[in-house]
Every structure is written in C-alpha cells, then in structure tokens.
Design a protein that fits this description.
Blueprint lengths: L2 H16 L15 H7 L4 H5 L4 H11 L16 H7 L5 E2 L5 E2 L11 H6 L1 H13 L7 H33 L9 E3 L3 H10 L1 H10 L1 H19 L9 E5 L8 H21 L4 E8 L4 H4 L7 E6 L2 H8 L4 E4 L5 H4 L2 H15 L21 H14 L36 H7 L8 H15 L5
Parallel strand pairs: 3-4, 4-5, 5-6, 6-7
Antiparallel strand pairs: 1-2
C-alpha cells in the first residue's frame, strides 16, 4: 500500500472499531509520552519544552518512526511549559529532570464547602484559581497580562502540536482523529479531589461531612455537562475521562460518591451523539458490573484488572483496550513480552470491540527496552486479522442503552461566562444592523476564550 492507501486502511480500522463493526485486524496504538520522544531524539528535555516549534516536533516524530509500529501515533496531551510558567502553577510543576508532574495540593479548605457549592465555577475563578496559579494572585493589571501571555502561549502550543501531528499522519499514513471532535470531560469527584481538596483531605471529607461532598458533586454537574458539550459529535470523536480516585475508594464509597454523577455524565454525552473514552486508573475489576450500565460503544482502557472478566461481561457492549503492563517491556525477556501479548489478545480480540494498547505510556527511555516493544508490536501486527471482518459486533442499538438525564440538571450559569444578549445589554450596538456581525464576532472569540476559564 502507498501512504494514502495505508492512511485510509488504518482510518477504516478505527472507524469500524468505533461503529460496532469487526475490523480487518486488531487496531494498534503506540504507547509513548511526549517526554519519551524528546529523549529518544536526544533533545534536552527541559530546554526543548521551552523552545518548541513545528519543525522540532516533526523531527522528534520522524525519529520515533525508527521503532514505532502502531496505526496511530501522536504527541498527545503534551503539557505547555511556557503556559505553566505564566500561570506560576502549583498543580503542574516541572522537576529537575524536565518532567512536569502533578503534586498533591489542597486548594479548597473544608470550611469553604458551603460557598463552593453555591456556584463551583464562580468560586473557582474568583477564589481558587489565584491559589492554584500564583500568576493570577496579583493586582488586576498583572493578572490580566499574565493571563493573556498564558492564553496566547497555549493557543500557539496547541496549533504547533496539531500541525505536527497532522503532517506526521499524512507523511506516514497513520490514523489521526479529525479536528474538533475530541474533548475533556471533568468528573465531579475527581475535580473536587484532584484539583481542590487533595487525596488525603477528600478521604476525610467523605467520613466527616459526606453530605457536603455529595452536594458539591451535584453542584459541579451543570459545569461538567457544559464542558462535555464542547466537542463536536462524531463517530471517531469522544470525550476523554482520566479517572483517578474511583479505584482507591471502598466499594460503598464508590457507589455513593463517585459513580452517580460519573454514570450520568457518560449517558448525557451519549445522548447528544458523542462517545466517551475512559481511562480506568488502577484496578476496576470490582466495578465491572457498574461499567455494564454505560451506553453501548463507550470506550474504556484499563491499567490493571482481570481481562477475562472484562471480556466476558463487557466485550459485546464496550470497546476495550489496555491491560498490557508497559513495565514488562523493561523487565521481561522478548519471549515473555510476546507471550503476554498473545495471552491478552487471545482473550480480548475475538469478536471485535478491542484495540491493542498498553496500560500506560512510557515517559523515560529507561521505561522500556525498545527491542521488546518492537517484538510485541510486530507479533500483534502479523497475527490478529479477523476472518469475519465486516460483521456487526452486537445487534443492540446504542440508543436503546442510553438513559435520559437531560432534565436532571439546570443549564450551566456563571457570571464569568456571559452570553451575547447580556453583553449588548451593557454595550448596545450603534445600529441594529450591526447586531448579527457583533454576535458572530462575540461568539467566535468567546469560544476561544471561555475554555480557559475552566
């Protein structure tokens, strides 16, 4: 196949996977973080993140093709070191190695729950964001200047990454998700725990003030629904959920605090025609029965867990991935690595609804032995074509599995997210004929700026 044909073939693999069709073979995803690409290309990790360009990004992606074997490979969600610099962030901190990490911090105090619950978005913007980002904890002029620099740097960063990924996919015939069809979907419990209370404090809260935690979850829902609505619905698109706290809760706590709002968000997203991709951090085996309640075609990939249980209970309903321990690529022999891939694929591949990916991405060069990685990928590429390609995975219709929660929550409102009619009430047009043009401009630039107030 030439490059164009290869890209079309790989795109069809994922299109089939995501639309209830058994593909020609198991689709395969590479497993590397942005930091790994930089190190493999022998670039200084710290300096490179402060001096990115499309040319540099394409160079490191070209270099990675010496070993990359997957149907899709991209820079992914690389953090923006320059933006973090202007934020003076406390939640994203670069270490001496150049890796940006997320330390545990407590931004919201326990005695602030009541104020937070009144409107989490407004309280976050006015009170918590300046605590989270010291660049915002300044006089109004300095704060505006820091925010403008941060936003411009983030827009430039996003543009460079998207352009490099797009050019790379065209050059090597790789599958790439269409623009505008992916988004992030914050989950109430993880939003409260990761960004505001911290791991150690939230586990105390669910014992000493459980109702306040539940009230905070419910108060966060309109905002989370609003965030989840930003991506365009598309068969190849999805909203990504990076779960964190769920697997660290007791089952009764998970059932009471984590799952109710989580499950509703996934169904609400499906109701508007968009799928959800969920990274189930740690081991979700004891929650597999809960996952059965998610809409048909929801995509999950696992860090740990019993793959046979997931296949037996979810294989006809959800798209599965993960389970392969990337640490084995470092510690195992070549044959052990291949045998593990064979074990997982023999369980998960039959019947479709599965793509091969590792449990996490390699960040440091020392995380894997590249020869082991190549051996695994070549084994999967050579051995997992489907004899019944083109058949439906399941006869169940997605719409029959979606629960209607559309009327459970009010529309998201915040004094910091202003619609056009409210804006012109304060700034009337010189003439009514200007209104359509003003509206178009207002909505265009609001769509650019509003996501930064999240």
């Amino acid at each position: 196949m030439n490059v164009k044909q290869l890209k079309e073939y790989r795109t069809k693999l994922y299109t089939d996977l995501y639309t209830n069709i058994i593909p020609d073979r198991v689709p395969i995803s590479d497993a590397f973080a942005f930091e790994f690409f930089l190190q493999y290309a022998e670039k200084d990790l710290m300096a490179s993140q402060y001096s990115l360009s499309v040319e540099l990004l394409e160079e490191i992606l070209d270099k990675a093709m010496e070993f990359a074997k997957g149907d899709t490979m991209s820079i992914g969600a690389a953090r923006n070191a320059i933006g973090i610099m202007f934020q003076k962030s406390r939640v994203n901190v670069m270490g001496k190695t150049g890796v940006i990490q997320h330390p545990e911090v407590c931004i919201l105090s326990a005695d602030e729950y009541d104020e937070y619950i009144l409107n989490p978005h407004e309280y976050t913007q006015s009170v918590l964001q300046p605590r989270t980002n010291r660049g915002w904890d300044a006089d109004p002029v300095i704060r505006c200047m820091n925010f403008a620099k941060y936003m411009l740097s983030q827009l430039e960063h996003n543009r460079m990454v998207a352009e490099a990924n797009r050019n790379h996919a065209e050059k090597y015939g790789l599958y790439i998700t269409p623009p505008g069809v992916t988004g992030r979907m914050p989950i109430p419990f993880d939003t409260l725990a990761d960004m505001n209370r911290g791991f150690s404090e939230i586990v105390k809260d669910i014992k000493r003030c459980p109702q306040k935690v539940i009230d905070a979850m419910e108060a966060l829902m309109p905002y989370c629904i609003w965030q989840a609505s930003k991506s365009k619905a598309h068969p190849l698109g999805s909203n990504t959920v990076m779960t964190h706290m769920g697997a660290f809760l007791r089952t009764k706590e998970f059932e009471k605090f984590y799952w109710p709002t989580f499950e509703k968000l996934v169904h609400l997203t499906a109701q508007r025609g968009q799928q959800t991709t969920i990274f189930c951090e740690h081991d979700w085996t004891r929650f597999v029965d809960y996952l059965q309640d998610l809409p048909q075609g929801t995509r999950i990939f696992m860090e740990y867990g019993d793959p046979q249980i997931f296949k037996d209970k979810l294989g006809k309903k959800l798209v599965l991935g993960g389970f392969y321990p990337v640490t084995l690529l470092k510690n195992g022999t070549k044959q052990q690595c291949i045998d593990k891939a064979k074990e997982l694929l023999d369980i998960l591949a039959p019947g479709g609804n599965y793509y091969f990916r590792f449990d996490k991405s390699a960040i440091h060069l020392s995380d894997i032995k590249i020869e082991n990685y190549v051996a695994v990928m070549e084994h999967v590429l050579d051995n997992y074509k489907y004899e019944n390609a083109g058949e439906q995975v399941s006869s169940v219709k997605k719409e029959d599995t979606i629960r209607d929660y559309a009327n459970d929550y009010p529309e998201f409102k915040s004094k910091y997210i202003i619609d056009f009619d409210d804006f012109i009430a304060d700034y009337p047009p010189a003439d009514e004929k200007a209104v359509p043009f003003m509206r178009a401009a207002y909505e265009k630039y609001s769509a650019i700026v509003d996501p930064f107030f999240s």
